[in-house]
## 1
Amino acid sequence: MPSPDTSQDIATLYRFLAQCMHYPDSDWMNEDFLNVFYNLLGTLGGIEEGVEIRKSINNAEDYLEDLQVEYTRLFINGVPHVVAPPYGSVYMDKSLQGTFAGNTLAFYREKGFAMDQNADLPDHLIHELEFLSLLAEENDSAGEKEFLKKLFRPWYTQFHARVTKEAHHPYFRVVVMLIDFFTKEEDEDGFQPNEA
Amino acid sequence: MAFNLTRRKFLQTASLAAAAVPLSKVVSASTGVTKAPLDAKGTNGDKTVVGGICEMCFWRCQLVGKVRDGRLMKLEGNPKSIDNGTAICARGNAGVKLLYDVDRLKYPMKNVGKRGEPKWKRISWKEALDECGSKLKSTVDKYGAQGICVFPHGSSAKYPMHYFERAVGTHNVSEASFFQCRGIRDTAYVATIGKAPGEKIDMPNTKVLFFIGDHLGENVHVSHIKAYIQGLQNGAKLIVADPRFSASAAKADIWVQIKPGTDTAYILAIMNYLVKNNKYDKKFVEEHTDGFEEFSAAISEWSLEKAAKECDIPAEQIKEVAEMLAANAPNVAIHPGRHVSWYGNDFQRQRALACLTGILGAYYVKGGWVPSKGPKVGGVSWAKEDHGHKYNLNFDHHEDEKVHPFNPPGTPTELIRDCAISGKPYPIKSCVVWGQNPMQTIPGQEKMKDLFRAMDFVMCVDVMPTDVTMWADILLPEASYLERYDYIKKGTQWDLSKEHQQYISARIPFIPAMFERKDQIYITNEIAKRMGHEAKIPVKTIEEMVDKSLATANLSIEKLKAEDGIHIQPGKDPYGIPEDFEVLLYNEDIEDAGHPGAPTYKPVEQPPKGFARLLYGRAPVHTFNRSQNNVWLKNAMPDNPVWLNDQVAANLGLIDGDVVGFVNSEGVESRTTTTVKVTPGIRKDCVYMYHGYGSANPLLTIGVGAGVDDQSLITKLAVDPETGCNGMRNNFVKLIKDGKVLDIPA
């Protein structure tokens, strides 16, 4: 079990990952955020990825609009079709609000959590990351592990693959890679295979 | 691409602590998942919600929803319903899949690409409404209210339609349900009996059902089908005129395999036979009709033989039909039809049906045309205002008369499109599309695109990304019928011979609107505020609108909920003819307006050599394009095979299941292909397919490109002169197999 301090840091990390998946808006998607994002990438040895994103942002006439258009296309409604709706049920039940969403909500409840009135659907990627953050805050690493295994990874791998393949903007490719990195199972030796 | 350390290593080292501090400064404080009391395992919050009213089609059956944990699990007919009862159709069941369709519109979006080739960007409601309001106001300021055209459809479009017509003041509103569907029927019957007929024939209690092209069974509306089946079970004879062996033809006692476009000649010959042989209802004609002499003289040329030749059917069969009707009159049900915008000669055919009902004395009698006596519930909407005729495109100012004198409400579509594209007689520069998909409801897709290209601004409101939404500058997501209050459904028990009862129900949502979808009252009012009409807003919320309407019947939303969603009260006997009821067999006003005052047959163009006429109709599990993306319904009927006569198929070397495309007589090719259904059940001179397939918008990930879009092949635009409505069955096609165009043998 991680120390309470580590758990708090992990909780912060999940919250940050959830933040990365919000619709890009000038309220939060700004220089401060991007600098923190680049620093995290640097800490992980992802300098090249950071450079690619920075280049894309610096070369854009309106980088925020580019990110908004790309977010809309990838996750909301896109031409030729929405690439990767960020809801577990879409992958597990081929529909919004399928049984999988119900199971996700039930898991939240069993752990003493519920959806806020203004929240998106329970199996939205952002909320699942928020939930993982809340579990980490409570130092419930068993719950975190169970949730990742049963209700997160089964669909996230498909989502991740779609975004990786279809994203035009490097920001989203890197964000889903980060989320993958921090939610992926590792073997006993802590070895994480390099898929590249 | 991968990071150069492991997750575990990162989490175990000081790196995490170092990284976490700055991370915490850039995340938002609130979360969508919050602390709550612990909950026991197992299902939670199962309930049956009452008050739903379906909108998978216009029939609008009464529903209950099975809801678990805020998720709609299943739809069923409301057990209290005296209309559809516990039954709902395949489409009704599949409403769940519409609700949770991932392709549905979720947030307001702005097109930052080209119109017609959109690049969508999610925007806030404020930005969307500001843009809609300012663009529409700018159009009005620069060009006048007439500078806006509106294409509305469905129950949610009524309130915004009234806003643009009444408060803003544009005449340029065109509803597909009128101008490409039933408007002709309604105005023809109004010109004959003073009322729109609906589908108000007393089928359960009739002795003979008479259908012209109606294909009940493929055309499924629950209580209508119940009434139809009850009639057949009670022993009613069924006469079906259709070039195709439809679901109704399959149950018919007499199937009249009529040549397309000649229906009016057939009806005139039946009426002429009845008149000439004194087999009409003389008492009814004397007491309740006007113009019999002119009428009988006008139709006198239509001998059985002449009609037989024109309609390509046996004279003896026409006589058999006429005799069957006469022998069972007045208890005969002449179905007025619904989608009747076929050939551009349709007003006269619909008049003929109304007159046939009249000379058989089949109004207000058991088994005839009988309007049920439903409850009265008042409506609430924008106050009517007189905006004059100056900018009414359907008004000829030189002649001081209407261009199409018997038009249904609104302005004929072609008049709007011609004006918008040419800029004459005045500019139309903004377009509002609300719940309609003009790309697939209105013939002439290129012309529709030209209209959009001519606009300064286009906004669409819909639940799904239908083909037309590709042409929007601003696209607004509307709450679906399962997520909003609105429509008030009222009526009586479906079998008029049973205990007379009336019902009133109102649409009540099963779940709150998901994402950022909004209802029509919110959207319209917010636009109205931005256009300077805040003082005229009649209701603040959709709940207020429904409650104000229900109050006129001493009801409320809460009372309806307490009554399981449906209020039932004693009804009234609908039989018995009103004293002042009159059938205008000959209508002088029609004659004065320059059209035949008695029902008259106008021949239509025949297929050129090598072509077959393209016919289309309803599929039992789809409501045209609206349900194409529904995965359950898609699986039930994935495409629309083209019906091809077996002898024609043999000559062409085609077999069942061959894949074909189409080219029409104007050289337009279908974008997609479909399969061939080889059958003796269709005439050689026509082909048939279900309407509404082959969507072009890739945002419909299920429906895009599935089957062939018949509307894309309907490029010759016929207009019914009396009404201004379109005729859509005057287009001719050849098949394309493996890139080779096949001539249809004569």
## 2
Amino acid sequence: MKKSEWSDREIEELLRHMPKIQDHRDPRDIYQNLSLKKRKTFPWVLPSIAAAAALFLLIVLGPKLMDGGPKTQYSFDQSSNKKSVEQNIAMKKKDAAQKDYSISKAENYDRMSEGPLKTAIYEDEIGSGKVITYWVPDDQAQNLIPVSTIVQESQNESWLDLFNEHMSQVNEDAWGLSEYYPINAEFKYDEKNQILEVNVPADHQYGQGAANELMFLNIIKKDIASNSDLKKVKLFTDGKPGIEFGNTGIETELIIQPEKNHAYLLYYPNNNETPYLVPTIESFKTIKDAIAAMKKDDPTNGLRKSMLFELSEKDMTIQDNTLHVTMEKNAKMKNDQITLFSFEALLLTAKEFGLEKVMIKNAPIKQIGPFDLSIENKVPIAPNLRNIE
Amino acid sequence: MDSVFDELYKKYHHDVFQFLFYMVRNREQAEDLVQEVYIRVFKSYNRFEGKSSEKTWLFSIARNVAIDYFRKQKGWKDRLMEKFDWSTNQLKDDYPIPEEITVQKEEIQWVYKCLEYCNVDQRAVIILRFLQDLSIAETAQALGWTESKVKTTQHRSLKLIKKHMETFYAKEESNIEKVRVER
């Protein structure tokens, strides 16, 4: 029966008749859920692991990020220079910066060291050591850059022994170049037939992709051409003749031709202010053509012009294996790093054409770094000296 | 299985469950909360001094669990709004009426709905006093109140329920009237 009014007692009575509610779950389930939940009593464990991992990553990646691209480094240098250098000099710097980005960069380099430094290896520097040149791809794998080092020769080691020995110490990363060495192959010299044997393992990666195989073949050719006068290389895979390349098919031998008649330009690796002197892929008929090419940037290959001298086009002669060039009247020349690079590029290019000495006539200054311009200077033994440890 | 759990389960599980069920008015929530009660019991079982009976101790934990649950239900936004908006002092829930209630006679259903209008304290007192049949003294112990506070709260909640029962009745009457008129 429904009523319109209830007394307290009646309400109480109704409340007492409220249905009894029971938990239908098995006590064992409840207990199991409990122990599951108990384990979750450390809610800070996961976040703290994540935080530790993040911190670790930050420590590992931090320095790399700090270094940043070449842009950040450049701007840093500029700003620090502006502060430290007198206004007078800063004005000059501005002029130079307008002329060429690379020049201002090299000038920075200049001030950081004591004076302009030569980068190639010359006769008088070798002493009892031996020069080994490794051709290393740049970090875009566009150019092959010859990097030379002086190694101490112990009893009767051939160039190949030294080449093999020091291959693993090539430090591409520190030089701003691509990781390539040690080459995953065995180099052996067959004395009877005067042939070099290159043996790659069965699982080698050098045949994969056109760029890959081309680079491998070029590096082998250039390494051998610049370190020896061998003419022929035989290729083996796991002891069997021939190496299979995806595009060219199976190659059993390479004919080595001496590298000749290239012009040297400048290559600036990322994060690095010191340029490398790099021969062009193209070769030239005459040294005049080569010097003309040195006056232009080569943007397709990422190379910058190396020739800053105002040389007279007409007065360029070769006598007794010596290149004679003449500076234009009123031409300017500074004793700084970029000028030295320019001079070395000229020396190396002259060497490409089989010349032994270079003489600059009418030079406005007498000295560039260690070079005395009033006399004939000998061409270097090899470009781009870097130390290997 | 843990012997402590076993004992507590046998003696009090359904009482605690029923208390939580009427507090939060939802079976699933009650099931979750009863777990939480056990966890808190195990954490502080060593500290249980025996000043009160085990039963009232369990109920006091269950009440705290329920209150924490209601606090969590309201986000920080709601809590902030509540500070400014005093008209929404009521704790309302939107759960449908559980099956156990819908099969009961209409008056029981009304009572259940009326409980919604009680605040947490009032509801706790009603449940402990009438559904669990605890004495005034036991209820005071479980809630940590004085006996007189229990008595006044109980009186007020009964009055509140009575008031809402009457409105339910009035609504019902008018519905029937309407039906008659329409005929």
